[in-house]
Amino acid sequence: MPQIGVTYKLLTRIHIETSAELSEPSVCEPDRVISVRYCGARRCYLRVVPVMDGYADSSMMDAMLQISEAFSAGMSADVPARRVQGVCVLGVCPSVVGAEMVCDDADEFSLTPVPVIRDTRVPGWVSDGTLAILIIGSGCHVDFEDTIVVMQSRGCDIVCVCADGGTRLPEGVARVTIPKGMGIPEESAFVAGVVARAVQDAGFTQSADRLAEAVRESRDMTGAHMERAASVVPAISGRVPAVYSTSDIHACSRWWRHVLGRWSLSFCGELPEFDHNELVGWSDPNVHAPELSMVVLRGERGPGLVRDIVGCMEQVLDENGRRVVTVDLGEGSAMQRNVRGFMIGSAVGMIMEAGE
Amino acid sequence: MTDHSTREQLHGFVDDLERSLDFDIGHGFECEDILLCGVGGSAVSGDFAADCCYTESRKRIRLMKYPDLPSWVGPSTLAVVSSYSGNTAETLGMYEQARERGCKVVAITSGGALRHLAESNGDDLVLLPEGMHPRHAIGYMIGYTLSVIRSAGGPDLSGRIREFIPSLRRYRDECALADGSLAHVVADRFRGHVPVICSDSSMQSVAFRWKTQINENSKFVAFCEQTPSFEADGLGSWIEHSRDDFILTFLIGADDPMCMSTSILEEASEAVKGSGAESIAIRLGGSSTLENMFRGIILGDYISIYMAEHRGIDPAEVRPVMQMKEKLAKIRQF
């Protein structure tokens, strides 16, 4: 993250906004060396934003900050805290991806799993003592009435995260309302915050604390996220993308699939499973579908088998003539990598929208 | 061209299933969670078994395809570790971790390092017949996996499956083997397209199997989707961005306690047809979702073989996977 008083060499064009008392805003070209004072807070002495097509895109920066705030809003939501023995999240809308970030986090740290199921059917093991969180995002027309009946008959504690006025809930079902006016990215971030808070307050694991830390870190990297996104967009525009990530951060490839689905058919999958079957198909030219394009969100945790596997996979694909777009999510916890992947994916969506 | 053994193994799927259904490991397992560990062809059986047990199992059943086990895996977990060859790096990694965490372990394999480790460590071991293509040992692997789940207090599906074994043989003969059968027709329709298989979530493992079999046997990319989530996130994209080099294929089963969204699948199929996008709807026609799952496996496997035959290639050959294994072995010095 840019630090006060440190000199940087630019890799991209930036727009420097200054306060009214100082000099006029200016645009710096790449390869210039400048000293920056960057602050992610709203009231800045000097703010650095990426430049797209000659215009300082502060609207994108603001949109990215709003997503960060939506994470925080979710974590601050009033979720009825209960001591339960287990948890299960059900939902089918795009914003369920927020819950999937918490699922990945729980796999890394929790002694109790947080299964997230994209279905309306209640698994057989869900029973009395289960905190059942239902996600019904805005615009979701799938009927969950039978789902709630089953959950209630089994004695579950039910919390429904849904848009205000969009869903009538029976008595006994707690509601957490998705604030009005949120787009899908903000809604997904809000859901992540709510589920992380619920899981933490139920005593399972410190998901909310880790999410808050990951969001803080990501907010400071907003410019870098935008840069990374800007470098990816040309490689996938006009193509049919399939996005893959390792299973421990499956949420972020799901998110990218949703974002890219606005402009094209899009798909997602997981590594290393890909290497045992899909690798064969992707190593074929598939001349009947020349626009197929593979995106790999790389962020393996630490050295080891998975890092070696993904590296070998990229070599095999390259040797078989398949170019892969790789996005490096860096290292760190599943929550950190998922939040970075989520924010970069959201930035990709904004840049593609701006280019329409 | 498809060799005799591949055809024989496909044909033997129902017989293999029947032989393995009543397997008894000899004792029960006390556990809270069942973790089904495996990748590739050896994971399909776990995925399928998890779908079969979804509504009835009082134990959490989770599929694991990643060599770093979740934190919550421990002594109250039964780890069923499947690798046909017994030498798959990711699966051996899962086996090692399961042992370190104090899990109860059952190994399902035909040999290799997994067999050796299981025997040395005194784990329960279920032996698969040797000499099969890993992904065509699925009949045995499904039967054995369901038997182990039963031993751990999961549902007993063997009686229900046995009831429709004769129907599965008829389905295989009529819809997969006969000249001009459904499998031939669909394989022909898939030519020049990227198939995207859409099923109800109760059969997501079957749609995933179709995807992997088409990739491995016919060497074409394929994908899969599930309703109801496809209806909420994905259907719109198909209607707006449909392409004539992709074909959406709906696998439509039955409405019964295992499946709640056949109607959503039917509606999605109509919506896509109305948009002019390339699509086909395949009605599996079985008496239950459970039977349709097995019908789907049979049909999809044969479709992938016929697609390979259209291309004049050997479905059994998987050169890129071998390239991967060679590179990985050099790095890891196995």
Describe the structure.
- The complex is a heterodimer of chains A (356) and B (334).
- With 356 residues, chain A is of the alpha/beta class.
- Chain A is 40% helix and 21% strand.
- Chain A has ten helices and 15 strands.
- In chain A, the strands form four sheets. In chain A, strands 8-7-9-10-11 form a five-stranded parallel β-sheet, with helices on both faces. In chain A, strands 3-2-5-6 form a four-stranded antiparallel β-sheet.
- In chain A, β12, α7 (250-260) and β13 (267-271) form a beta-alpha-beta unit.
- The longest helix of chain A has 21 residues, at 334-354.
- By secondary structure, chain B is an alpha/beta fold.
- Chain B contains 15 helices and nine strands.
- Chain B has helices spanning 4-11, 13-20, 41-53, 89-100, 112-121, 138-151, 158-163, 165-177, 182-190, 204-218, 229-232, 235-241, 262-275, 289-311, 319-332; strands at 33-37, 60-64, 77-83, 104-109, 124-127, 194-200, 223-227, 246-252, 279-283.
- In chain B, strands 2-1-3-4-5 form a five-stranded parallel β-sheet, with helices on both faces. Chain B has a four-stranded parallel β-sheet with strand order 7-6-8-9, sandwiched between helices.
- Chain B is globular.
- The model of chain B has no long low-confidence stretch (mean pLDDT 94).
- At the A-B interface, α2, β12, β13, α8 and α9 of A face α3, α4, α10, α11 and α12 of B.
